[in-house]
C-alpha cells in the first residue's frame, strides 16, 4: 500500500488523466478501499484541488474548475507565463514541442481560474508572432479540441461550408499543419480534418465510447492518409539508403517509409502530378529507383535531361 503523500500524488495524476473516475475503479488502481479513496479526496479538497463528486449508478469523481489556482507550486504570474508559453509552443513556435505543449496546456487550463484565463487571453492577443509558412491555428481552438479528445466528447463544427458531426480521437501536428483525427458520424468513416479549416469553435455533443483505433500503427495510418490517399498520382520509390538516413530528409506528411533491409527502404507518396514526385525524390540527394508507376520513370529521365542541359556552359 502506498504511503499517504505518494498515494495523493497518484490519485491526483489519475484524476488529471481523464474526466471521470468511478470510486471503485480508483480504489482498485490505488490498491485501497473506497473509504480510503473518499478520505483522500477530502484531503485533496483541503489542499485546494476542486474535486467534484456525484452519487448514484453514474457517480464518481472528476477534477473540476477551481475558484482559486490549486497549489501547483506556481503563483498567478508564473501560471500566466506558463500558459502563454504553452500556447505559443502549441502553434509551432518550438519545433517538436507542439503536441506535448498542447497536452500540458489542456491540463493547466482545466484548473486555471477565470481571472487568470482573461490575463492569458489578453497577453496572447498582444503578441504578434512571426510564424513560418504553415497556416495559423488558434490556440484556443486547439485547446477545445484537445479537451474533447480527452473527454471522449462528440463535437459539431463547420468545415468547408458543411456541418460535420464527429467523435474526436487525436490531434496530429506535421510540422506545418494541425490535423484532427476523428470518426465522421455522417460518413461513417475515419477522417482527418485540417484544424485551420474548422470554422469557429466546435459545439459540444454527447459523450461516446471510444471506438477501436483505425490502425495499430497510428503514425503510419496518418502518414498514408495525409501523403497518398488525397492525391491523383501514387508512387512507390526504392531508396538505396538506410531508413534512418532517408527519414532525416522527409516527413510523415510527405510520405510513408517502410524498411526493406539494413541498406534500403521503400517510400510511398502521392502528388497532383508525376513531375512533383520526380522533383521531390530527386532533391533528396539519395540514390533511388522508381518501382511504381512505370510512367514516372519517363518523368525522372526528362528531369535528369533538363538538369543536365542547365549545367552546360551557355553558348557564346
From TrEMBL:
<dbReference type="InterPro" id="IPR013196">
    <property type="entry name" value="HTH_11"/>
</dbReference>
<protein>
    <submittedName>
        <fullName>WYL domain-containing protein</fullName>
    </submittedName>
</protein>
<dbReference type="InterPro" id="IPR036388">
    <property type="entry name" value="WH-like_DNA-bd_sf"/>
</dbReference>
<dbReference type="InterPro" id="IPR036390">
    <property type="entry name" value="WH_DNA-bd_sf"/>
</dbReference>
<dbReference type="InterPro" id="IPR018356">
    <property type="entry name" value="Tscrpt_reg_HTH_DeoR_CS"/>
</dbReference>
<dbReference type="InterPro" id="IPR028349">
    <property type="entry name" value="PafC-like"/>
</dbReference>
<feature type="domain" description="HTH deoR-type">
    <location>
        <begin position="4"/>
        <end position="59"/>
    </location>
</feature>
<dbReference type="Pfam" id="PF13280">
    <property type="entry name" value="WYL"/>
</dbReference>
<dbReference type="InterPro" id="IPR057727">
    <property type="entry name" value="WCX_dom"/>
</dbReference>
<keyword id="KW-0805">Transcription regulation</keyword>
<dbReference type="InterPro" id="IPR001034">
    <property type="entry name" value="DeoR_HTH"/>
</dbReference>
<dbReference type="InterPro" id="IPR026881">
    <property type="entry name" value="WYL_dom"/>
</dbReference>
<dbReference type="Pfam" id="PF08279">
    <property type="entry name" value="HTH_11"/>
</dbReference>
<keyword id="KW-0238">DNA-binding</keyword>
<keyword id="KW-0804">Transcription</keyword>
<dbReference type="Pfam" id="PF25583">
    <property type="entry name" value="WCX"/>
</dbReference>
<dbReference type="InterPro" id="IPR051534">
    <property type="entry name" value="CBASS_pafABC_assoc_protein"/>
</dbReference>
